[in-house]
Amino acid sequence: MKSGATVILGLVLGGLVACCQANAFSWGWCPTVEVMNDFNITAYFGRWFEILRFENTEFEEGYKCIHADYSARDDGLVNVVNFATHENNGVSRSLEGFAFAPNPKAPAKLEMNLGSSYFIGDFWVLDTDYENFAMVHSCDNYFFFNYQLNWLLSRTQTLETGDVQDALREFEDAGIYVTSFIESDQTGCSEF
Ligand SMILES: *[C@@H]1O[C@H](CO)[C@@H](O)[C@H](O)[C@H]1NC(C)=O
Questions:
Q1: Ligand 1 atom, smallest distance to 45 CA
Q2: What sign for the dihedral angle of Cα 117, 144, 101, 35?
Q3: Residue 145: band (very low, low, confident or very high) from pLDDT cuts 50, 70, 90
Q4: Best of 36, 39, 40, 131 to mutate for ligand 1, by most ligand atoms within 8 A of CB?
Protein backbone atom coordinates (compact mmCIF):
# COMPACT_ATOMS: atom_id res chain seq x y z
CA MET A 1 0.00 0.00 0.00
CA LYS A 2 2.65 2.44 1.07
CA SER A 3 4.96 1.66 -1.84
CA GLY A 4 2.05 1.90 -4.25
CA ALA A 5 1.32 5.41 -3.05
CA THR A 6 4.98 6.32 -3.37
CA VAL A 7 5.06 5.13 -6.95
CA ILE A 8 2.02 7.22 -7.80
CA LEU A 9 3.45 10.28 -6.09
CA GLY A 10 6.66 9.78 -8.01
CA LEU A 11 4.73 9.69 -11.25
CA VAL A 12 2.88 12.87 -10.35
CA LEU A 13 6.09 14.68 -9.45
CA GLY A 14 7.76 13.36 -12.58
CA GLY A 15 4.85 14.75 -14.56
CA LEU A 16 5.16 18.11 -12.85
CA VAL A 17 8.87 18.33 -13.58
CA ALA A 18 8.27 17.43 -17.21
CA CYS A 19 5.49 19.99 -17.21
CA CYS A 20 7.54 22.94 -16.24
CA GLN A 21 10.68 22.05 -18.10
CA ALA A 22 8.89 21.57 -21.36
CA ASN A 23 6.66 24.54 -20.58
CA ALA A 24 3.98 23.00 -22.69
CA PHE A 25 1.99 20.55 -20.69
CA SER A 26 -1.62 21.42 -20.09
CA TRP A 27 -3.83 19.94 -17.45
CA GLY A 28 -6.24 17.29 -18.61
CA TRP A 29 -6.49 15.08 -21.62
CA CYS A 30 -5.88 15.89 -25.21
CA PRO A 31 -8.78 17.76 -26.77
CA THR A 32 -11.15 15.66 -28.84
CA VAL A 33 -10.53 17.07 -32.26
CA GLU A 34 -12.18 16.39 -35.57
CA VAL A 35 -9.89 15.74 -38.47
CA MET A 36 -10.69 16.08 -42.15
CA ASN A 37 -12.65 12.97 -43.04
CA ASP A 38 -12.16 13.12 -46.81
CA PHE A 39 -8.47 13.98 -46.63
CA ASN A 40 -6.58 13.49 -49.89
CA ILE A 41 -2.87 13.03 -49.26
CA THR A 42 -2.02 13.38 -52.94
CA ALA A 43 -3.52 16.86 -52.98
CA TYR A 44 -1.52 17.65 -49.83
CA PHE A 45 1.81 16.69 -51.44
CA GLY A 46 4.24 19.44 -52.24
CA ARG A 47 5.68 22.24 -50.15
CA TRP A 48 4.25 23.80 -47.00
CA PHE A 49 5.69 26.75 -45.07
CA GLU A 50 5.25 27.15 -41.34
CA ILE A 51 3.27 30.28 -40.40
CA LEU A 52 2.47 29.55 -36.74
CA ARG A 53 3.74 26.87 -34.38
CA PHE A 54 3.36 26.11 -30.70
CA GLU A 55 6.06 27.82 -28.63
CA ASN A 56 7.15 24.49 -27.17
CA THR A 57 8.10 22.91 -30.51
CA GLU A 58 11.57 22.03 -29.29
CA PHE A 59 12.99 20.59 -32.47
CA GLU A 60 12.22 23.82 -34.29
CA GLU A 61 13.38 26.20 -31.58
CA GLY A 62 15.98 28.67 -32.83
CA TYR A 63 15.17 27.98 -36.47
CA LYS A 64 13.50 30.09 -39.14
CA CYS A 65 12.42 29.67 -42.77
CA ILE A 66 10.86 26.35 -41.77
CA HIS A 67 9.15 24.47 -44.57
CA ALA A 68 8.59 20.87 -45.53
CA ASP A 69 8.17 18.88 -48.72
CA TYR A 70 5.80 15.92 -48.86
CA SER A 71 5.84 13.37 -51.67
CA ALA A 72 4.93 9.78 -52.49
CA ARG A 73 7.37 6.97 -51.80
CA ASP A 74 7.46 3.72 -53.78
CA ASP A 75 6.54 1.75 -50.66
CA GLY A 76 3.35 3.73 -50.11
CA LEU A 77 4.69 5.86 -47.27
CA VAL A 78 4.86 9.63 -47.52
CA ASN A 79 8.35 11.06 -47.86
CA VAL A 80 8.86 14.12 -45.66
CA VAL A 81 11.79 16.54 -45.77
CA ASN A 82 11.73 19.31 -43.19
CA PHE A 83 14.00 22.28 -43.93
CA ALA A 84 15.08 24.97 -41.47
CA THR A 85 17.71 27.68 -41.17
CA HIS A 86 19.39 28.44 -37.87
CA GLU A 87 18.48 31.94 -36.68
CA ASN A 88 21.96 32.76 -35.43
CA ASN A 89 24.49 31.12 -37.71
CA GLY A 90 22.34 30.88 -40.85
CA VAL A 91 23.21 27.22 -41.34
CA SER A 92 20.43 25.23 -43.01
CA ARG A 93 19.46 21.73 -42.02
CA SER A 94 17.11 19.21 -43.52
CA LEU A 95 15.47 16.36 -41.66
CA GLU A 96 14.24 13.50 -43.78
CA GLY A 97 11.55 11.20 -42.52
CA PHE A 98 8.26 9.63 -43.39
CA ALA A 99 4.59 9.73 -42.57
CA PHE A 100 1.75 7.26 -42.95
CA ALA A 101 -1.87 6.83 -41.97
CA PRO A 102 -2.10 3.68 -39.80
CA ASN A 103 -5.86 3.51 -40.30
CA PRO A 104 -6.86 3.77 -43.97
CA LYS A 105 -10.30 4.89 -42.85
CA ALA A 106 -8.76 7.95 -41.18
CA PRO A 107 -6.33 9.23 -43.83
CA ALA A 108 -5.92 12.61 -42.09
CA LYS A 109 -4.56 10.93 -38.94
CA LEU A 110 -0.96 10.71 -40.02
CA GLU A 111 1.91 9.48 -37.90
CA MET A 112 5.10 11.44 -38.51
CA ASN A 113 8.63 10.17 -37.98
CA LEU A 114 11.48 12.66 -38.39
CA GLY A 115 13.81 10.68 -36.13
CA SER A 116 13.65 10.11 -32.42
CA SER A 117 15.77 13.12 -31.47
CA TYR A 118 13.52 15.44 -33.49
CA PHE A 119 9.91 14.44 -33.78
CA ILE A 120 7.88 11.25 -33.76
CA GLY A 121 4.17 11.58 -33.17
CA ASP A 122 0.72 12.32 -34.42
CA PHE A 123 0.43 14.67 -37.35
CA TRP A 124 -3.30 15.07 -37.76
CA VAL A 125 -4.63 17.34 -40.46
CA LEU A 126 -7.59 19.17 -38.96
CA ASP A 127 -8.36 21.22 -42.02
CA THR A 128 -6.84 22.26 -45.32
CA ASP A 129 -7.94 23.66 -48.65
CA TYR A 130 -4.72 22.16 -50.16
CA GLU A 131 -4.01 25.42 -52.00
CA ASN A 132 -3.52 27.94 -49.20
CA PHE A 133 -3.57 26.70 -45.64
CA ALA A 134 -3.31 23.55 -43.53
CA MET A 135 -3.97 23.12 -39.80
CA VAL A 136 -2.10 20.29 -38.09
CA HIS A 137 -2.49 18.92 -34.56
CA SER A 138 -0.38 16.57 -32.46
CA CYS A 139 -1.14 15.53 -28.89
CA ASP A 140 -0.11 12.93 -26.34
CA ASN A 141 -1.60 12.21 -22.94
CA TYR A 142 0.80 11.99 -20.00
CA PHE A 143 -0.94 11.03 -16.79
CA PHE A 144 -2.88 14.16 -15.76
CA PHE A 145 -1.39 16.25 -18.53
CA ASN A 146 -1.39 16.50 -22.25
CA TYR A 147 1.47 17.65 -24.41
CA GLN A 148 0.47 19.15 -27.71
CA LEU A 149 1.90 20.80 -30.76
CA ASN A 150 -0.08 22.58 -33.43
CA TRP A 151 0.89 24.16 -36.70
CA LEU A 152 -0.61 26.52 -39.22
CA LEU A 153 0.99 25.96 -42.61
CA SER A 154 0.75 27.80 -45.89
CA ARG A 155 1.66 27.10 -49.49
CA THR A 156 3.56 30.40 -49.51
CA GLN A 157 5.76 32.12 -46.93
CA THR A 158 2.92 34.37 -45.85
CA LEU A 159 -0.75 33.85 -45.18
CA GLU A 160 -3.44 36.54 -45.38
CA THR A 161 -4.45 37.94 -41.99
CA GLY A 162 -8.04 36.83 -42.57
CA ASP A 163 -6.94 33.25 -43.19
CA VAL A 164 -4.79 33.30 -40.04
CA GLN A 165 -7.72 34.62 -37.99
CA ASP A 166 -10.09 32.01 -39.43
CA ALA A 167 -7.61 29.24 -38.58
CA LEU A 168 -7.08 30.55 -35.04
CA ARG A 169 -10.83 30.60 -34.50
CA GLU A 170 -11.06 27.04 -35.79
CA PHE A 171 -8.21 25.90 -33.52
CA GLU A 172 -9.91 27.58 -30.57
CA ASP A 173 -13.25 25.91 -31.36
CA ALA A 174 -11.39 22.59 -31.34
CA GLY A 175 -10.28 23.25 -27.75
CA ILE A 176 -6.71 24.23 -28.58
CA TYR A 177 -5.03 26.98 -26.53
CA VAL A 178 -4.25 29.46 -29.27
CA THR A 179 -2.25 31.64 -26.87
CA SER A 180 0.57 29.08 -27.16
CA PHE A 181 1.10 29.87 -30.84
CA ILE A 182 4.11 31.88 -31.93
CA GLU A 183 4.79 33.30 -35.34
CA SER A 184 7.29 31.38 -37.42
CA ASP A 185 9.96 33.66 -38.91
CA GLN A 186 9.89 33.46 -42.71
CA THR A 187 11.95 36.60 -43.30
CA GLY A 188 15.48 36.82 -44.66
CA CYS A 189 15.32 33.34 -46.12
CA SER A 190 17.29 32.27 -49.16
CA GLU A 191 15.38 31.68 -52.36
CA PHE A 192 13.49 28.42 -52.59
C1 LIG B 1 -6.74 13.64 -54.84
O2 LIG B 1 -5.96 14.70 -55.31
C3 LIG B 1 -5.34 14.45 -56.56
C4 LIG B 1 -4.40 15.60 -56.84
O5 LIG B 1 -5.04 16.82 -56.72
C6 LIG B 1 -6.40 14.27 -57.61
O7 LIG B 1 -5.80 13.99 -58.85
C8 LIG B 1 -7.32 13.13 -57.20
O9 LIG B 1 -8.38 13.01 -58.11
C10 LIG B 1 -7.88 13.34 -55.81
N11 LIG B 1 -8.59 12.16 -55.38
C12 LIG B 1 -9.84 12.21 -54.94
C13 LIG B 1 -10.43 10.92 -54.51
O14 LIG B 1 -10.47 13.25 -54.88
A1: 4
A2: negative
A3: confident
A4: 40
Question: Which of 33, 64, 40 shows the shortest CA–CA distance to 131?
Answer: 40
Mode of pairing for the β-strands spanning 181-183 and 46-54: antiparallel
Q: Kindly give the number of the ligand 1 atom that is closest to the alpha carbon of 130.
A: 5
Burial degree of 26 (CB within 10 A; 0-12, 13-18, 19+): middle
**Distance between terminal CA atoms of the chain?**
61
C-beta 72 within 6 A of ligand 1: no
Mutate-to-test residue for ligand 1 from 39, 42, 78, highest number of ligand atoms within 8 A of CB? 42
CATH of 2-183, one of 1.20.59.10, 2.30.30.30, 2.40.128.20, 3.40.1180.10: 2.40.128.20
Annotated domain spans of the chain:
2-183
pLDDT reported for residue 24: 61
Q: Tell me, yes or no, if the pTM score tops 0.70.
A: yes
Minimal CA–CA distance to 64: which of 41, 83, 38, 45? 83
